[in-house]
Amino acid sequence: MMQPVSSLSRSAGTAGLAEADASSTLARLRGVEKQFRRGAEAVQVLRGLDLDLRRGEFLALMGPSGSGKSTLLNLLAGLDRPSAGSVEVAGQRIDQLSAGALARWRARHVGLIFQFYNLLPVLSAAKNVELPLLLAPLSRAQRKAQVATAMALVELEHRAKHLPRQLSGGEQQRVGIARAIVTDPTLILADEPTGDLDRKTGDGILDLMQALNAEHGKTIVMVTHDPHAAARATRILHMVDGQLSTEMDA
Amino acid sequence: MTRLGLMASAFRRHRLRLLLTAMSIVVAFLLFSYLVAIRKAFQMGVDVAGADRMMVRHSVSIIQSLPTSYEAEIERVPGVVDATPLSWFGGIYQDPKNFIAQFPVKPEEYLAMYPEFRLSPEQKAAWLRTRTGAIVGRTIADKYHWKIGDRIPIQATVWRPKGGGATWEFELVGIYDGAEKETDTTQFLFRQDFFEENKQFGQGRIGWYAIRIKDPARAAEVAKAIDQQFVNSPAATKTETEGAMAQSFADQVGNIGAIVTAILGAVFFIILVVVGNTMAQGVRERTQEIGVLKAVGFTNGEVLALVLGESMLLAGVAGGFGLAVGWLLVSQGDPTNGFLPIFFFPPEDLVLGIALVLGLGLFSGLLPALQAMRLRTVDALRRG
User: In whole angstroms, how far apart are CA B32 and each of A45, B26, B222, B329?
Assistant: First the structure.
């Protein structure tokens, strides 16, 4: 049930925080602020945001454009750093890591799913999926086995050798999901994963994400504008003006 | 897939652009191969010049002749071991395009003066027995399919024979080889005494003297003594080391080294700009993909290495191919039909060529690689 909570940006994330078992909290954001400069003007995107992300949950972040959803996702992914506050994921303060260490951390802990798939057009589906594994100390055979598993999970084994342009939008997004899960990351972050797909294809992608969450225990944070997509999550948070404003358990 | 495979995958993007860029690199290195061979050809005389050999020529120019009587006088100068005369014959074999350097020489003195010309004792003996005998270097013997016993007609352009007409006929009695790769094996040598007796004019005159001195460290002193001896005679002399003479001969064409360096500098600057532009364009077009690489965990350093690796791979493959083809083509020999008797790809320039390949890859990729490295991941992802 959606609740109007003006200060829930804190309470939304912190609700039940005191009782939360440390092992059940995967990510903990405290007092996070993010400011951008647009010319001479400073734009405050996140304003003292607190959030606790529970291990194994499927969280949907909703809100109007410019509310800070993607910025929050970028901070969780270690793609960006907060202007103030702390971001802790799996017990590690990632806002304090060096650029190199943060990249390595991403490789180990984060799987990213993009709205426009962001596949490398000159690589086959399988090679796109293999990309993050190049950073892992794995043999070629081990990489191949993991790619095959990920491709099987998204039911695209038969399209492994196809180039992205030879795949439909839905298939490309499945490849994107396979790339996100191939390293067995701690956290999967998806930015409008169905935003570029028709409803039916989008449903297929959401089914897959739901299965990853429910059957494989993956913790997922999904940014979406679409209430239909958000309804698949186990928890929905709304963002307005850089603050988490409402919480709803789906 | 490997990281090298990922690097190479970038080349599948714009194949035509890749092909054109690669071709420009290949052509640059072909040009490099020919230019270094040409430079070497012009330097050859300087490089192979004996440290203890000097040349005595007319003080005005090498085309002014000297009296044959100078030989004995030069040999009497302290520090001189031996002197032997040479003249430029300048005849034509079959076609003016067939350039062959021909010299009337005193066989024993000449072979002693130039031990790098290797002639078998039997052939040397045959040359001493045969007044019309001539010996040639292995290169032109092979080129014109000459063999021992052949009679070779040479058309005079200056030195017509007394018997009328313009043809001098020589019997090939020997083929010499070079002691070193740089040794000139394109000369045609015949006997001075036969030439002296049969030329229509200029008796008692020769072109210049090659002399051997005891101590190369005293070359300047010996040269001064020789020139001093003839300073008031009708044919004053200029004595210089063989290397200096070869250099001044090459400099008649121009400062070949500087010309070659200037051309190569211009070519490689243009290639650097072309390849650099291709790489920069490639990075600009792949901004979002570079963002993806960083998002999945590639560090800034790894992205830098990836883009630098691409330019190194492109320069390495295309430049290496250009050098290989250039080496093969240059190995076919002098493309000028005899004007460049020593024409080969100098090994030291192969090392320079490899250094240029690596430098081209490094410098053409450096700016685009830095540009890719500095991209902020979120900005790069957004730009797609």
Answer: 57, 10, 41, 12
- Number of inter-chain CB pairs under 8 A, A vs B: 76
**Which chain B residues have a beta carbon less than 8 Å from that of A79?**
294-295, 377-378, 381
| Whether residue B273 is found in the same domain as residue B294 | yes
What CATH number does the domain containing A165 carry?
Answer: 3.40.50.300
- Would you state the pLDDT for residue A4? 27
How far off is chain A from B318, nearest CA to CA, in Å? 21
Q: Report how far apart, in Å, the C-alpha atoms of B22 and of each of A36, B25, B278 are.
A: 43, 5, 10
Under a CB-based contact definition with an 8 Å cutoff, are residues B268 and A78 in contact? no
Count of domains forming chain B = 2
Establish if A4 touches chain B: CB-CB under 8 angstroms: no
In chain B (384 residues long), the average pLDDT of successive 10-residue segments reads 87 88 94 89 65 88 91 94 94 88 95 94 96 95 94 94 91 94 89 95 94 88 93 92 72 74 90 90 90 94 94 94 94 75 84 93 93 91 74
Note which residues in 148-167 of chain A have CB less than 8 A from chain B: none
**Domain region containing A236:** 55-83+98-245
Paired sense of beta strands B205-206 and B66-67, if any = antiparallel
Contact B292 A132 (CB under 8 A): no
> Is B309 found in the same domain as B336?
yes
> What is the rounded CA–CA span in Å between residue B382 and residue B295?
12
Domain range spanning residue B19?
A: 3-45+255-383
Contact yes or no for A219/A211 (Cβ under 8 A): no
Domain count along chain A? 1
Q: What is the pLDDT of residue B50?
A: 63
Provide the angle, in degrees to the nearest 10, between the axes of the packed helices B242-251 and B15-48: 140
> How confident is the model over A218-232, as pLDDT tens digits?
999 999 999 999 999
Q: Does A99 touch chain B (CB under 8 A)?
A: yes
Closest CA to B160 of B213, B99, B89: B89
Nearest CA in chain A to B383: A118
Q: A97, A108, A114, A128: best mutation site toward chain B, by most B Cβ within 10 Å?
A: A114
